[in-house]
């Protein structure tokens, strides 16, 4: 995370910067007035001065909220469903595979309901295990998250059409999965088509360092067809196996924190964000912040248009109640109060403005030199 300037920190506590420097010195840290300190140290300092960290500075707030589950008490951790991202070249059948999986596994009582494309949804397996799938229309969210060192997915399914073979976006997707460090399963789709050549796909991918188990490598290839349903059960089985060993856990008792994977303005419902919960639980009535957008959760809606009071770890849901439409790819989290939400947004806007005016200054200097 970004370092916080000592002067900024002091300012927010209404004390002199020198006092902060002195305190840091006492703690064994030699810093000067104009240096930044990391969020963790900032929280320490703030507490040393008798304040609560969360109300002082949004950067610190984010640090507090972005703690990973290693900060959770072991006893609070509970198993959570795996989040699977489905990637691949356009038209190779990502959405079709997801639709087919979903149709075959709609929970009783949900069949026949209006299903909406919210870009993510949950499938229940025979054994009762749940798997959450994300359909990526673009990889932007994935990329911007990765840039911040966060990953929202546990496993990637790389879809390659058996007739088309490996294409540019296949490689792009492969690189994303690699960079995210998540295990990958290859689904060789459109096996029903004349000219389907799964061996060609295996050969092509082997040239990119992905070796099938059948060929002595460690990547699972599953031949499937979204149209006939061939191989889909096996794909789910492989996913279940793959994720079992990951022993995924989260802490549903803490405040909700997640990622906006899609967002739009709905004529009737206002700003709508599809949120994937990373940790904690979102509740109706919670105050949330995402980027510089705030809001109170008016409704939590699943992909079957059903409303819920809460949404826990790994659950994708549509969130209603935001003041405006947030950018996809951003982190969203629950805060304690509307005041805290406003503080964070003000801080973020100030920071944006600062960065904006700095960029402007640089630009005008450049102009100046250019004109000399
Ligand atoms: P996406 O862009 O990866 O999401 O691909 P889509 O799911 O939209 O599929 C692109 C096209 O391929 C559509 O016309 C699908 O009907 C077709 N398609 C998808 N899966 C299969 C399959 O298993 N067999 C055949 N024959 N066509 C498929
Ligand atoms: Mg699609």
UniProtKB/TrEMBL annotation:
Protein name: Translation initiation factor IF-2
Shown stretch of the complete protein: 505 to 876 of 1083
Residue ranges of domain Tr-type G in the record: 79-247
Cited function: One of the essential components for the initiation of protein synthesis. Protects formylmethionyl-tRNA from spontaneous hydrolysis and promotes its binding to the 30S ribosomal subunits. Also involved in the hydrolysis of GTP during the formation of the 70S ribosomal complex.
UniProt source species: Mariprofundus erugo
Family to which this protein belongs: Belongs to the TRAFAC class translation factor GTPase superfamily. Classic translation factor GTPase family. IF-2 subfamily.
Annotated compartments: Cytoplasm
Binding residues annotated for GTP, in chain numbering: 88-95, 135-139, 189-192
């Amino acid at each position: 995370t970004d370092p916080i300037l000592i002067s900024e920190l002091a300012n927010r506590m209404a004390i002199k910067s020198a006092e902060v420097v002195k305190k840091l010195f006492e703690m064994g840290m030699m810093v000067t007035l104009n240096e930044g300190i990391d969020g963790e140290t900032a929280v320490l300092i703030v507490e040393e001065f008798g304040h609560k960290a969360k109300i002082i500075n949004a950067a610190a707030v984010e640090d507090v909220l972005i703690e990973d589950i290693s900060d959770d008490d072991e006893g609070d951790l509970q198993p959570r469903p795996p989040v699977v991202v489905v990637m691949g070249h356009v038209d190779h059948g990502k959405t079709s595979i997801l639709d087919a999986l979903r149709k075959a596994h709609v929970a009783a009582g949900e069949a026949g309901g209006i299903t909406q494309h919210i870009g993510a949804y949950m499938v229940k397996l025979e054994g009762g295990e749940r798997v959450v799938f994300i359909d990526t229309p673009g990889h932007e969210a994935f990329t911007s998250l990765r840039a911040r060192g966060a990953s929202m997915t546990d496993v990637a399914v790389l879809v390659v059409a058996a007739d088309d073979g490996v294409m540019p976006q296949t490689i792009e997707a492969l690189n994303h999965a690699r960079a995210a460090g998540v295990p990958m399963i290859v689904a060789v789709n459109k096996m029903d088509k004349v000219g389907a050549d799964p061996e060609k796909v295996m050969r092509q991918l082997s040239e990119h360092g992905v070796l099938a188990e059948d060929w002595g490598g460690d990547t699972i290839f599953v031949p499937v067809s979204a149209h006939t349903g061939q191989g889909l059960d096996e794909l789910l089985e492989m996913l279940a196996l793959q994720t079992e060993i990951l022993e995924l856990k989260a802490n549903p008792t803490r405040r909700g924190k997640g990622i906006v994977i899609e967002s739009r303005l709905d004529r009737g419902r206002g700003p709508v964000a599809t949120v994937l919960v990373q940790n904690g639980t979102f509740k109706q009535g919670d105050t949330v912040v995402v980027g510089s957008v705030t809001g109170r959760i008016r409704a939590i809606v699943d992909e079957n248009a059903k409303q819920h009071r809460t949404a826990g770890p790994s659950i994708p849901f549509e969130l209603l109640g935001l003041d405006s439409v947030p950018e996809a790819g951003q982190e969203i989290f629950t805060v304690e109060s509307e005041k805290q939400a406003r503080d964070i947004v003000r801080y973020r806007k100030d920071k944006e403005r600062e960065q904006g005016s700095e960029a402007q200054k640089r630009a005008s200097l450049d102009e100046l030199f250019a004109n000399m």
